[in-house]
Write a structure and sequence with these properties.
Blueprint: E1 2-5, E2 8-13, E3 16-21, H1 32-46, E4 53-58, E5 62-64, H2 69-72, H3 86-91, E6 97-101, E7 104-106, H4 108-114, E8 118-122, E9 126-128, H5 131-134, H6 142-150, H7 152-161, E10 164-166, H8 167-172, E11 178-180, H9 185-197, H10 201-215, H11 219-236, H12 240-257
Parallel strand pairs: 3-4, 4-6, 5-7, 6-8, 7-9, 8-11
Antiparallel strand pairs: 1-2, 2-3, 9-10
Helix pairs in contact: 6-7
């Protein structure tokens, strides 16, 4: 079954649901409307007995480049207010999420990728944490999850510079499980999802829960620290004019690094 609901494509097949962010013209920037739609989709799938595994990807050249800086910078009005917490909706899904990272996963997009259980990257994938360049502190767990995956020194390099990490380096650093040709990405992700569906559901879910429980044993405090810092920083530092002023600089830097 395939259905299109504005900003998100949802395709269901044999226990596997593919969720595709569908703002390719904006590199799947996370507008308030897109965040709301994704939150609703993941919340619905948590209750959907026909969905056992989710593949999460983006249409076009990007997975997602993160929050819509035109909205954040006040250059255009948001079509709606944010309703719900997308990060929490993904965490509360209760089912494996395979991140099929087709292109750019930047800042908030990097955070959403890190919320997946594991990632398969296209050869065109590239990750960047530009929170420090935008002037926004992470709020979906990047500061705590990234160091646990690739090591604290590498995480600091990425987060303090805002530089890109391309697919092969992401694989070498242990961020993604494998890198595949762009045209093979969805087929590889679908095969892995099918392999997961073929296992015993009760045992599979228990395994996933205890793996996560062990990994999060010291993560909760870190996430609380990040949440408090995010809120304090947003109150004191995040201003529309500051975001707008930085946007052009960030775009130019991205073009230069990818020439």
């Amino acid at each position: 079954m395939s259905e299109v609901k504005d900003l998100v494509l949802v395709h269901k097949n044999a226990g596997v649901t593919t969720v595709t962010m569908n703002r390719p013209e904006a590199l799947n920037a996370l507008s308030a409307a897109l965040r709301n739609r994704l939150t609703a989709v993941f919340s619905d799938l948590a209750q959907d007995s026909a969905t056992e595994v989710v593949i999460f990807t983006g249409a076009g050249r990007a997975f997602t480049v993160g929050l819509d800086l035109k909205e954040l910078g006040g250059e255009k009005a948001a079509e709606t207010v944010v309703n719900g917490d997308l990060g929490k909706a993904m965490l509360n899904l209760g089912k494996p999420i395979i991140g099929a990272i087709n292109g750019y996963a930047i800042t908030g997009g990097f955070e959403l990728a890190l919320l997946c259980d594991f990632m398969i990257a296209s050869e065109n994938a590239a990750f960047a944490d530009t929170h420090a360049r935008v002037g926004v502190v992470p709020g979906w767990g990047l500061s705590q999850r990234l160091p646990r995956l690739i090591g604290i020194n590498r995480a600091k390099e990425l987060s303090l510079t805002g530089n890109f990490l391309h697919a092969e380096s992401a694989y070498a650093w242990g961020l993604v499980n494998r890198v595949v040709a762009a045209e093979e990405l969805m087929a590889v992700a679908a095969q892995l999802a099918s392999d997961i569906v073929s296992t015993d559901p009760v045992t599979r879910n228990t395994m996933r829960e205890i793996i996560d429980a062990g990994w999060h044993a010291s993560l909760g405090e870190g996430l609380a620290i990040e949440r408090d810092a995010n809120r304090a920083h947003a109150r004191a530092e995040v201003r529309a004019e500051k975001v707008a002023a930085r946007r052009a600089q960030i775009q130019q830097r991205g073009r230069t690094q990818n020439d």
